[in-house]
Every structure is written in structure tokens, then in C-alpha cells.
TrEMBL record:
Pfam families: HTH_34. It comes from the Bacteria. This is Winged helix-turn-helix domain-containing protein. It comes from Amycolatopsis samaneae. Gene3D superfamilies: Winged helix-like DNA-binding domain superfamily/Winged helix DNA-binding domain. Residues 24-99 form the Winged helix DNA-binding domain. InterPro entries: ArsR-like_HTH, WH-like_DNA-bd_sf, WH_DNA-bd_dom, WH_DNA-bd_sf. PANTHER family: BSL7504 PROTEIN. The lineage of its organism: Bacteria, Bacillati, Actinomycetota, Actinomycetes, Pseudonocardiales.
Amino acid sequence: MGNQELPQLDPVIHAQARLRVTVALAGLCADEQITFPRLQQLLDMTPGNLSTHLRKLEDAGYVEITKAYEHRTPVTLVRLTPRGRAAFEEYTRALHRLLEVPGAGQ
């Protein structure tokens, strides 16, 4: 492969479940949020599993979780932060570069 170095993939995003969460959130508009139950339903994840992965993404500054009330009912809203969107865009660029490396797909 010579001097060409393989790009590094962000380990926070790279875990399969967190990648799925990030992809789902990246599909929203930059200022759009999704409710926790809707995200859970969309990804077919248990509440505990989704919470664990959201915590990792939140610790990295990639997602923002807001607790609010809607008609006196508590609601948890999730959105991708600008930092998270930039990290996801860099992740996809790195993945494309990785796939373009001669011999990497063999």
C-alpha cells in the first residue's frame, strides 16, 4: 500500500447501533428534533439500549437531549448537534476514502 495511510473512523460513531442512531438523526433538518419513543420505534431498539448509545453520543457532544413537557406529559427530544453533524460528515468522508484505497476491498 506504500505511504498511503488508511483513514481513521470515529469510534464513537462507528459502533453499529450508534451509527444507526447518527444516520437517523442526520436525516433530520439541522434544527429538527425527534422524540425518544419515535427514534426508538424507527430504530427498533429497546429503551435501555437506545439510552446507552445516546449517552455515549451525548458525552461526545454529538447529540443534545432535551427534557420538556407537552400537554403536561414529559417528553424527551433528541437532535444531532452541529458538532455531531460535522463528525458524521467526516465519518462518511473517511469511509469513502477507505473504500477507495486500492486493494482495501479485496
